[in-house]
From TrEMBL:
Its main location: membrane. It comes from the Bacteria. GO terms for cellular component: plasma membrane. Keywords: Cell membrane, Membrane, Transmembrane, Transmembrane helix. It is found in: Cell membrane. InterPro entries: CstA, CstA_N. The chain crosses the membrane at residues 66-90, 123-143, 163-182, 194-217, 237-256, 277-303, 323-342, 370-388, 400-421, 428-447, 459-480. It is a multi-pass membrane protein. GO terms for biological process: cellular response to starvation. Residues 3-142, 167-293, 318-445 form the CstA N-terminal domain. This is Carbon starvation protein A. Belongs to the peptide transporter carbon starvation (CstA) (TC 2.A.114) family.
Amino acid sequence: MITFIIGLVILFVGAALYGKFCEKVFGPDDRKTPAYTKEDGVDYVPMRGWKNSLINLLNIAGTGPILGPIQGILFGPIAFITIPIGNIIGGAMHDYFSGMICLRDGGTQMPDMIRKYSNRGVYTFYQIFCSLLLLLVGAVFIYTPGDIAATQVFGFDGAVDSVSTWVIYGVIFVYYLIATVFPIDKIIGRIYPIFGAILLFSAVGVFIGIFVLGFPLTEIWDNWNAGSVLYGDYFSANHFIPIFFITVACGILSGFHSTQTAIISRTMKSEKQGRMTFYNMMVVEGFIAMVWAAGAMGVYNLGLQEANASLATATIGVVCKHILGPVGGIIALLGVIVLPITSGDTALRALRLAVADGLHIDQKSTKKRLGLAAVIFVLVAVILVFAKSNADGFNILWRYFAWSNQSLSLFAFLAITVWMFETGRTKFVWMPLIPGAWYTFVTVTYIANAQIGFHIPWLGAYIIGVAAAAAYVAVLIWYGKKRSAIKAKRAGKVA
């Protein structure tokens, strides 16, 4: 358990130091925010700081920080160190600067941020890529909470031909439609505090239970193959890099998060709330990932659950009920169900906003919001039916979701880098470039080798990944300097 504790210290101490540094680099001030300058009663609505933070946490924390770590801990206790380091220098930094740049630029959504700090070709590709990811998020975050509710809360079989399965999906679907269309403070702003309380009970309850029950956690200096679970063999056989970083995803970094911080940029009363709302809430998600990684390792080591990545959903129920008992376990399961639902609704809301902004469709009219949402929901329904009806449908869906989620972050790191060049923060461009280069290597290597990708042998995939990372850094530095020079020249002409 010492490795787990060391990881938590790295997470919280590192976040306190690096979060403050990120804030200093950005420089929040007292200017009026878009929530006031563009207030429309629908998407631009001033809300309290604690509510923005809670909404952002629930928006970004789907099943990723639970299912990902449950599968990722099979690589061994190295996960307890890798998750916090990646979180503070990658994921939390990504969320903070994405949200703050959108906030300062008038509450823009991510497609507009990408358009402003890149070019038309990159923007067009991003729009398509991001839209596909958000559709996948919407489908995944109906499928996973629906199945967990059906099989582990209500005791149904969750089968494709069971009426109960589709009734539960339908209830989630209706909620998503309401949350997607109605003003943000009418539904999301009121119901999320309740969801937040359930979430906190779930995460904190499991965390306390790990210590009270004395869960046997493998240490990083132990023999990883000494027990019944052969973590060492799994680590060696499954290519820790890049597989771990695709699998764990949201607890370390998630490109999806930038689409959610952009939504909250329209409801913040002050720029100075950004560190708590964006950076610290990603750190909380890292804590959730750490807790579930430890909980899973505990039940694996105790022999209460087979250590198998394909049984990750079943492991959730074992962890909850073993630690918190039948009643507490059900409440904790509700917290797990809440996470994806509160990410799915705002994913589809973000998609509506992005499409509306791109096509210049006014969203003040309820009729226009419903019309746009209807098209989006039909597409989500098609993906959901495929995933449920096909024997390997969900596995295919999840793999594409996980890879595209990480790949999307590269666009945010690109925009943050160019923004730093243009705003005179050139000496800090290493902040987005380091995680950007790393995840270029990870995502390119993965898709080059993967069965859902190009089937290239590992050696070739690694070479391609290194080349892609080097090209990513070189092109961004060149482009950033070019944009900075053009801006300086224009400023000189104006003067």
